[in-house]
Amino acid sequence: MSQQRTAVVTGAATGFGRLTAQAFAADGWRVYATMRGVATRNAEAAADLEKSGITAVELDVTDDASVDAAAKLINAAGPVDALINNAGAAFFGVQEAFTPAAAERQFATNVIGPLRVNRAFLPAMRERGSGLVVYVSSVVGRLALPFAGIYIQSKWALEAQAEVASYELAPFGIDVAIVQPGAYPTEIFGKGVAADDSARATAYAATAKYENGINAALAAAAEGRDPRDVAVAILKLANAPAGTRPLRTTVPEDPAAGAINAATAAVQRQVMEAFGLGDLLQKLPSHA
Predict the structure, then answer these.
(1) Is 204 a residue of the active site?
(2) Among 135, 151, 167, 204, the one annotated catalytic
(3) How far is CA 16 from CA 83, 118, 127, 235, 267, in A?
């Protein structure tokens, strides 16, 4: 009888994270659903997940002590096979209207958070010589849209973090996969953080029609889509044989993001070879 595999999902109280934790559990994995406020604001979500045999664990990706405590608890119980960096926040609005402090908060969750979580779990994976790290990004991690610049910048940075990790971890037998969801009807829109400099935001009143148009287009794209598609895609990657997982997967298939992924993969291959890193590419599946 094969040993039960273990997955850790960050930001699992709602949205893609919660659905992913449930999908892995239904597939027979041991699942640790991490979130903030297990005993307080997310107590109901935690209790609901526990009913499915999922272990809810307190973890704030912006706090060293919180991440280290969660990793110590989880690693002590056995090896982690799949680490899903899903926790994120979305700051929507014109760039100039966000103060540097607000931008730092966006990056603290979406970029530094995964780095912090990886540092807590990767040593055990490297020692074992296997594992999968999944980053939940976005199709806008490869695109640029106005009025969501702070959020999009964080996703571009996350894409870079993940791709660099794919090269650095390949010699240790650890796969990296980036999942790029399109617009889906999840809680992220309701939880979006607005610009904190209201005076600057007001100065852009003339552009409101463009921002409203983008929001309407996103809502229309999300209508009718099932967020569980993203959870299924992540589980499919986890169940794929090691060394065969593509670096980037768009959900649903997105022609624009797919074209950018393919074009940049070709350029990136040339860059890697120019720096004498062609042998690393041999350890990796397609990086489109």
Answers:
(1) no
(2) 151
(3) 14, 19, 29, 12, 31
User: Could you report the per-residue pLDDT of 198-241, keeping only the tens digit for each?
Assistant: 999 999 999 999 999 999 999 999 999 999 999 999 999 999 99
Output the CA–CA distances (angstroms, integers) from residue 174 to 2, 122, 241, in the order listed.
Answer: 20, 9, 12
Amino acid 215 reads N
Q: Directed axis angle between helix 15-26 and helix 43-50, to 10°?
A: 10
Tokens 């009888």: give the residue.
1
Give me 256's structure tokens. Answer: 């624009």
Name the residue with tokens 């926790």: 87
How many separate helices (H) and strands (E) can be counted in the chain?
11, 7
Indicate whether this model's pTM tops 0.90: yes
Q: Of the CATH numbers 3.40.50.720, 2.70.50.60, 1.50.10.20, 1.20.1270.60, which one belongs to the domain with range 6-282? A: 3.40.50.720
**Most distant pair of Cα atoms in the chain: their distance:** 65
